[in-house]
Protein 1
Amino acid sequence: MKSARIAVVALVVAITMNGCTLQGDFRLDERLQIMAPGDRQTVTLPLRVRWRFDNESEAARFGVFIDRAPVRVGENIDALARNDRDCTSRPGCPDESWFQAQGVFVTTKAGLRIDTLGIPFDARGARELHQLTIVILDAQARRVGETAASVEFFFEREQI
Amino acid sequence: MSNRPKGKPEQDEDVALGQVDYAAARKALGVTGEGNVGRFFSQLRSADVPIYPLIALSILVVVDEFQGVVFSALAPEISAGLGLGRGTIAALVVFKTIALSLAALPMAAFVRERPRRAVVALTTAFVWSFATLGTGFVAGGVGLLLVLLIDGASTGSVTATHIPLLFDSYPPPVRLRVLSIYRGFNQVGAIIGPLLVALLTAVLGFTWRGTFLICGIASLFAATVALRLRDPGLGRWDLQRLAEVTVHSEQKQEMRPLTLGLFETVRRLMLTPTIRKVLVASGVLGMMIVPLQTYLSFFLDERWNLGPGGRGVFFAGVPVFGIAALSLAAKRADALYRRDPALLVRVAAVTFALGVLLLVLAILAPWFPLMVILFGCSTASFVALGPALNAALQGILRPEMRPHAAALAGVFLGVIGGMGGLLLLGGIDRRLGTGPAIISLAIPGFITAWLLAGASRTINADLDRLVRDVTDEQQVRFIRAKGTPLAALRCRDLAFSYGHTQVLFDVSLDVEEGELVALLGTNGAGKSTLLGAISGLNLPSRGTVRLFGHDVTYVDAERRVTAGIVQVPGGRAVCRSLSVLDNMRLFGFVAEQSDLPKRIDAAFEMFPVLGERRHQIAGTLSGGEQQMLGLAKALILQPKLLLVDELSLGLAPKVVADLMRTVKRINESGVTVVVVEQSVNLSLELADRALFMEKGEVRFEGPARDLLGRTDLLRSVFLAGAMDGKQ
């Protein structure tokens, strides 16, 4: 019984220590909405992404992530380069071109033009399904809150 | 010298009790041979059983997958919210699946000896409810992994406890329909889950966190409703009735559970032919089901352009076909089971194969409505006879083993088959395309059906085996209740095979306490194999071995040594490179270490020559001394039943005679002895009673001197010397 009690206490502590905190929202934040492309729409390049954020004074910047998960809440987007030895060994990296190669774009505007799209890792044939996620960043490019908007779109890649 | 058994022989009662009425026994288990099925509620009323356990467990099975459903549906939102990649999310799901598959086994072990399945079912229901609720509060990948593992492990109880609980809560006449209703609620859960997610997110505007929170609260409410669930007791409706019809109508006490360990129970299950076939079938089924779940989403996406919402509606709609099939098939399946369980298994196999065929047709269908109908009919075929098949398989097992069987099926399906399927078939969709990849899954599907059909050939034999085991146990109870001493060794209907070659055929024998019995027979008659089955070195495919009434048939050989069964193997039973003393110490592993020197001294007293040579290397002893050392080592373990195999092998007659006298002395000290010996004249001088085996069967059992009169058995080549010596 003693070991069972210890196990229960350890479990509670582990859950608590692992960050079961009340930091996310329980109701949808509909202030951020992607206007284009539409969900599951087939697009062509260059891709024009447009979105709307009702309280723009709150957002210093927007982070746009294509085919990858955004950074965690409170994390700076530079953290994405953490595991890239090549980048971390180069002065000035990560820079804009590095981020774009990773499918990450940072902008202060509510729109973006994307000229190239990488091939998703689970692509099946020429018709690719991509995912685009937009989050809110502060002036230091740290993610603010869990507010996010996502959309899936198709892209027909020309076969060489 | 005659050595009378200390107890009164039990054979008289045994003969009277040994008449097994298989027809009555099968009827008690619900196999009446007739197809008549009464009305469900009137049968519930006449049996005076409440509907509550069915309702409670059905409610729990509706909510048990809430976390999984929400997680699948809202994975992109969780990914975006927590900043976790798709790969991480997929890995978390794999960990949860493994936890789900593996947790059922320890739970089965926990409920084996005492009927506490209801406590486990309820406790885990609250645990998974809190895990679902807690998922709404996680802040990172580690926290998410933790709640997923807790949810996976706790929902493992559904596999391990729910069906066995229902099985013992309801009598055979309504049991199959009860399981069908329960399975129907499982399908309802598959409908409600996605709809609830859609309602909470799309209509009521909750985030993934809010959705987990609400679903967790709903699950908590369901667990609270089920709080009055109680365990009905192991084998309440079948084994107790079986005991009544097979032995004695006054014997109504609850069956005493076996004290097999987890792995012993698993081994026991694997030695049940029907269960073994079904577990293999589960593994092959996993190779089909697990990749199918993945490929199907891609298929709907690519072929029919269904997004997450459309797919959600599709997956929520498909179980409707399952519910319809269950409601149509439940009564018919019940009737089939009553007529013949083998017939039910065959029909289930054919229905499953039909489901696979319909799945292939659904993938090839040119119109969306036709695809939906074909896919729904395929699902209906898979689901329709599942509960009946489950009932038929659980019905051939002792109650305490049912949770293990269910848990093992989960392990074979999810871990062995599922993971194996992903490894073998992962990525074939990229090479073949999603549709052809799903069609290729028909191969494991048809193999599953074929394996299931194979189980129909053994299910009736396994049902009879259960009847025989229970009858044997009841006979022992009866003998014990009468105060008659139980045999030191009691074997019933032992069968053993080396691969496909059967060596023992329904061997039954009794050895009374204090007896010395000679086991004789030609080479290859199965004598040593029988000793191995008694000592635990060989595990029989059928039958029982009891030591003073305790069933040790599937107990590990090491535990049998502790219980008192010690075997001196044929040949030189020594470690040749060790000294005599070290040989003794090595064998004393189960003795209290403080007690070991005393035991060794006692053995040296019986074998003074070994005492003199205690530091000599065993391999340098003479053949007779090495056999003496083998006996001395056995004595250290203080056996209650000593099995001596071929002591005289390769020894001079005088040495053999000395050894035999030693065996006699050991027997006179109170140890029950079974001696396997080629030298018949020696054996018959030594023993009062003899057993003669030929071709794996006992041909003679009786006083040793009577065997000498059986010239049909003692062929001249084999026994010329013996008969000359005696006559």
Note: The longest helix of chain B spans residues 172-203.
Protein 2
Amino acid sequence: MRSRRLLREVLLPVALGLLGIAVLLPAPAPAQEEVTTSLRRYREHEAATGIYEEYEVRPRRVRPLVGVPEVLRRTSPYASYKPRAAAEAGKRSRLLDSHAGLEFYEQRQCQVCHVEQANHSHTLRGNVTCRHCHGGEPIAGINYYFSPLNPIRRYAQVCAKCHEGATASFATFLVHEPHPGTLSTRKTFPSLYYANWFMFVLIVGTLGFFGTHTLVWVVREIFVGIKQRKKPELEPHGEPEDEGPGKPEND
Amino acid sequence: MKAPESPKMTEPVRILRFNVLDRLFHLVIMVTFLIQAATGLGRALYPTAWGRGLTNFFGGYASATTIHNRVGIFMLIAFAVHIAYILAKVEWKAWRQSLFNQDSLVPTLRDVRHLGQKIRWFFGLGPPPTFDRWTYWEKFDYWAVFWGLPILGVTGLMLMFPLGFSHIMPGWVLNVVLLLHRAEALLAMLYIFIVHFTIGHFRRGMFPMNECMFAGSVELEKEQLEKPSWIARLEYEGKLEEVMVPGPPRWYRVLYFVFGYTALAVGLYLLFNIILYRSYIEWH
């Protein structure tokens, strides 16, 4: 009996608490370890041979429960990755120099052409500039295989620069979020689109109903006045509510 | 001014409406809500000069974020305490009676009827409804916070631990969550600063300050107009004498008047700036 009580009152809450902590806290920050093969660590390999290989970066140990279907579904590593809300991403997104051949490119600033893209919270609040993530010239398209922003490695080479321990799932957060209310968003990011309209209807509905209700009420009370109301209605108030009499004692 | 201290007037009879714990919960949600509103709005409007100034009041962007996060966790804990309180208050052996009686905040069909009557009264088509202890808009206020707080709390926790949460769901969910958090927060602020303030304080007969949430008690004479059924029920049950309480002491009145007006002013100041800077709020 006692052990059962112990189980119920101590062990179960502790286990639930630990589970909660495990869910809430970020995973133990995985070093963004560079490896060439599963057998040899890159640095050892590099030091021993002096040969610099092309390598991938992947976090150690962490296996997120959530995969990124856009990445997993690709049939070959060279297949184009079409991120959400970037339906218009054309073939330039696959070039090594995505701005190749553009006239007067050197004289322009990013936000002159990428008006919408320049306006997001990473820039406005975090002081992150375009080049922090997209790199220097030539700016590779995000679907170019060796681009740091290619989703197969963007979490490690871009996101993790600030967000220590970023995973591929984490990196699917859309920094250049589309406008949630537009029809094109319904195709590219439906959950955002429907969440937006749900909240819009909720806000307009609640404030519309209670705002009008309150406004009419205030106006009505100004015209009626409490003192006038007092006289004719004290008698009708005597009538008890339907459950008034015969009501058993509560509380 | 009501001038209760004038020697000619006899002290009005007051009856208890909110016990100490009710008032304490209201005080906690009031202070934390205003802090969350200021730190949240300041950061949502950070690109504007006003938003920057507001976050600077809290020590800058990072500091305002930390305050927002910690106060948010505190609110969730306070909410858990509140749930424990209401669960302890219900008499589970007679739960129907306990949940659906007139002293309970659970909405019933009567509230729908009262709303209909009230709307008819707006247009002069009938007498106003005779309310019992809680009116339908008071119940709505309570349940709006009751559902709004966990929604804001859960979405806020997700945004507070984005790495942890992206382990159990895709990272793009955070885009949706951020939108929900902001929209829900805006709804809460607009509702409180417009509807709740107006009903509580700016109506004729309430203006300029409704003291009952601080004093805990209301004047019997006024309540006979506002909540006639409640008074009638108390008289019928012979409990009217039981709930009579002395008025709040003078120092306490001074204290809560200063505090209450400050809170009102902060709320209206934020509301004014929400309206002023509405086009700068980032929804995405």
Note: DSSP finds ten helices and two strands in chain A.
